[in-house]
C-alpha cells in the first residue's frame, strides 16, 4: 500500500515546532494518577472551556489532556510516558515502538493512537499518522489535540478547505486556542484571495 507522503511545503524546523506543540497539548501529564479518565470531570472541564478567558483556558485544556492521559493501568501509563519522552528526545521511531506496544495492550485508549500519530508525523509517515488520528477521533471525538494535528496535516497536504473545517471543529470545543484561531483567519484570507 502506498502512503501519502508529506508535501514539503514547510521547512523541517517548522515541522519539529508543530510536533512539539501537538506533543505539549497531547502529553500534559504532571503526575500519573493511574485511574482511567473521569468522563464526568472531562464533561465539566469542557463546559468550562467554552466560556473561559484565554489564561484559564490553557489550564483547563491541560487538565482535560491530563484526564485523557489516564489509561487506568500503571503499565500502560508508563508506555505512554516512554513514547512522549522518546518524542521529546527527538527519537520518533523509538516512540512509535512504545506507542505500538501501548496500542497492542490497550486498543481502546485514544491517547496511544494520538501519540503514535505524532511520532509517525515526525518520521514523514503521513498515511499511518492520518489513520491513527482517525482511530483516536473515533474513540474520542472531542480530542481537540488530535483534531488540531489532523487539520495541520490536511493543510500540509494542500487541502485548505478541509483543514479550515477541522480547525473550526477545534474552536467549537476549545474556543480560546489562539494558534487555531490564527490558522482559521489565515486560511479564510487565503481562500478568499483564491476566489477573487
Question: What does this protein structure show overall?
Answer:
With 196 residues, this protein is mainly alpha-helical. Helix content is 73%, strand content 0%. It contains ten helices and no strands. It has helices at residues 12-26, 39-51, 54-68, 74-88, 92-105, 110-122, 126-139, 144-156, 160-173, 178-195. Helix 2 (39-51) packs antiparallel against helix 3 and helix 5 (92-105) runs antiparallel to helix 6 (110-122). The longest helix is centred in the last third of the chain and has 18 residues, at 178-195. It is globular, with a radius of gyration of 16 Å. The relative contact order is 0.13.
- Tell me the number of helical segments per DSSP (H or I, 4 or more residues long): 10
Bulk shape: globular
Largest sheet: none
Structural class: mainly alpha
Report strand %: under 5%
Distance between the termini: 39 Å
| Structural Rg | 16 Å
- In percent, how helical is the residue content? over 70%
Low-confidence stretches: 1-14, 20-35
User: What is the number of E strands?
Assistant: 0
Write down the secondary-structure element order: HHHHHHHHHH
Average pLDDT figure: 85
Q: Gist?
A:
By secondary structure, the chain is mostly helical. It contains ten helices and no strands.
Write the layout of secondary structure elements.
Elements: H1 12-26, H2 39-51, H3 54-68, H4 74-88, H5 92-105, H6 110-122, H7 126-139, H8 144-156, H9 160-173, H10 178-195
